């Protein structure tokens, strides 16, 4: 019941924040933008190359530079803290659709003026490797070693990675699920009917 309430609140909040697209540096007064950008660059490492031209989801604090447990970043959207992270990359073959998990994090997020919650976030790429259009769902189900199960309908990022992919088409972005128990050390991902992989922290 609590999970449904948190998911409902998160969905309502994030769906209402889609127009907030300015980055924290862009929101600073003009005379402080260079200083703010320099500070951001000094505090955290560079954005990993696999993000490519991905633009951060406007409803969430940008966590691309957060790579290690204990790192915290705050911007105009709220505060994000890394609880667990792994850069281990996993490839999941789901028939004609191929899923590559680039990074996995368990995060604590406190949106501005909203209750905090904890969730798992995966940055993934999905590709249609076949000759025909195919319907994909990057993570149809995820099971933790602590016994928690989440399904694709509970996904909170909503970056449009699921659905039909044309032959050769590639999509990249985030998939996220609220977790009740963040003590998980192993996540078992199911991608469609065939694909399966384990992520270990």
UniProtKB/TrEMBL annotation:
Keywords per UniProt: Signal
- Work out whether the entry's keyword set contains GTP-binding: no
Domain of life, per UniProt, equals Bacteria
Annotated DUF4352 domain ranges read 91-189
* KW Signal (keyword) present: yes
Annotated transmembrane regions: none
What is this protein's name? DUF4352 domain-containing protein
